[in-house]
Amino acid sequence: MLITQCQQADVALLEEHLPSPSRTSFHAQRFARQGVGTSTYLVAWLADRPVANAEIRWNGCAATEVRQAVPNCPEINGLSVTEPLRGGGIGTALIRHAERLAVERGVQRIGLGVDDDGNPRAAALYARLGYRPVVRYLDRWSYTAHDGEVHDIEDPCVFLAKELTSAPTPDLGVRVQ
Ligand SMILES: CC(C)(COP(=O)(O)OP(=O)(O)OC[C@H]1O[C@@H](n2cnc3c(N)ncnc32)[C@H](O)[C@@H]1OP(=O)(O)O)[C@@H](O)C(=O)NCCC(=O)NCCS
What separation in angstroms does the CA of 135 have from each of 39, 79, 115, 158, 159? Predict the structure, then answer.
């Protein structure tokens, strides 16, 4: 498995293999943020096919309450692995890759949000990787459905953060071939 930074040509491939669930292309939005330098959009590949993605938002979580509670804490956002390959270590590899990039930038901590009580398996993974709860917040986002209707969403979430050491996190490898 290879992890790369998203390129323009990858956006269409991501949309083909990991389609946004709406008319709004989340991949295009993340790539645009990378273009203005506020994000790094990571893509995991297996045999020329994108199988997972994660965005590092260098300015931190969009929610003001999180940025106030944990200033200067970039966020890993939009972490998703294609369904048949979940449980094979790809999510872990993406998180570790994001942590290494953060350490290279001199960042001292990194965080991510998880549904409050709605995603216990993801929460268990993040806890195992050293992420600890910091603050509850409302994750506010919107999307345009295929019928053109705009939906504004408010998801109760918990922001988890991890202190990073200057030693690079070892890559423990992935179980997927
Ligand atoms: C959460 C997610 C990114 C983890 O990536 P992954 O490659 O499946 O995770 P890994 O293989 O590195 O680690 C496995 C652990 O992930 C967690 N996990 C969460 N959802 C899982 C799923 N649907 N299938 C398998 N593992 C999942 C479990 O803790 C699992 O450990 P376990 O097998 O001991 O229960 C991925 O499962 C996914 O895309 N889920 C759906 C979208 C999502 O919930 N995104 C996170 C939003 S906060």
Answer: 22, 19, 12, 6, 5
The CATH class of 2-176 is alpha beta
Q: Check if the beta carbon of residue 172 is closer than 8 Å to that of residue 91.
A: no
The phi, psi pair for 34, rounded to 5°, reads: -65, -40
Mutational test site, ligand 1, from 57, 121, 177, max ligand atoms within 8 Å of CB: 121
pTM (2 decimals)? 0.92
> Can you tell me the distance from the alpha carbon of 78 to that of 39, in angstroms, rounded to the nearest whole number?
12
Distance 83 CA to ligand 1 centre (A): 9
CB atoms within 10 A of CB 48: 7
What percent of the chain has a predicted confidence (pLDDT) above 70?
Answer: 93
Mean pLDDT value across the chain? 93
